[in-house]
Amino acid sequence: MLSQYSVVVPGVANAKIDTLVKKSGEKGAGVSRASFIRMIRKAKKAGILVVHKTYRSSGGFAHNVFVFQRFDPTGETEVIHRGNDENASDSRAVHTENETETINLLINHQDQKINIRKESASTNTTTENPSLKDLDETFTPDNVPNEFIQTVKPFYNRAIEIYRFWQKARLAYDKFNFDMPLEFMISVTIDAFKTTVFHYKNRKIKTTFGQYFYGTLCGMFGVQKRKEHMAKKPRYNWLDAMEC
């Protein structure tokens, strides 16, 4: 079941456990969530899988990422054939199918570069789960425009920091009830950030960097709101007035 969810990045499955349990029930008798977790533990102990935790941008754990590891399926071959002598042809077919799938999975996994941090130990056998504050800008959520990320990352290159600055931009934007979406006002948010950096480097900021950025945004958005209001206001027709 995990291998069926390892198509986008061969050898890596990021489906939720509840989803996998549900799908197993649709394909046959199925297993319980507890049984699935026990099988995952056995696979980890046998060196077949490595399980990595992921983190939500808002904090807390998200679903796991399951990464297949190279292992020798020879032991499985012997168990299958010895335990089912009366159905040798069926066992051989099942084993051949599983072995082919496993080999293809391992070859594909070997060709891919999986960007998951591992603990730099001499044995290289243990893995480290990075905390939210350790994630770089490549982990920033998709709803943050890339132009904004590229502007902020030379000064704040952690994903959580970039995301918080964008949240401040969202809060300032929501105060003015614009007709235009925030994503179409990226230039304003970038100008506000650059202005904040300039005054910070010039030692003109007496509050925190984030507070000054928010205040600068509110001022710039106020100017944009007035422009939007004037654009919607009907213009006085001087020619018609003169004819009257």
Short description:
By secondary structure, this protein is mainly alpha-helical.
Layout of helices and strands, plus pairs?
Blueprint: E1 12-13, H1 17-27, H2 33-45, E2 49-52, E3 65-68, H3 74-83, H4 88-111, H5 146-152, H6 159-174, H7 186-201, H8 209-232, H9 238-243
Antiparallel strand pairs: 1-3, 2-3
Q: Evaluate the radius of gyration.
A: 28 Å
- Reading the helices and strands in chain order gives EHHEEHHHHHHH
Number of structural units classed as domains: 2
What structural class is derived from the secondary structure elements?
A: mainly alpha
Q: Using DSSP, what is the number of strands? A: 3
Averaged pLDDT = 76
**Sheet with the most strands, sense and barrel status:** 3 strands, antiparallel
Q: What is the second-level CATH architecture of the largest domain?
A: Orthogonal Bundle
Shape, please? elongated
Oligomer: single chain
Our measurement of the CA-to-CA distance between the termini, rounded to an integer number of angstroms, reads 81 Å
Number of helices, where a helix is a run of at least 4 consecutive DSSP H or I residues: 9
CATH topology of the largest domain: Arc Repressor Mutant, subunit A
Low-confidence segments, ≥5 residues, pLDDT <50? Answer: 75-86, 112-127
Helix content: 40-55%
Give the strand order of the largest sheet, numbering strands 1, 2, ... along the chain: 1-3-2
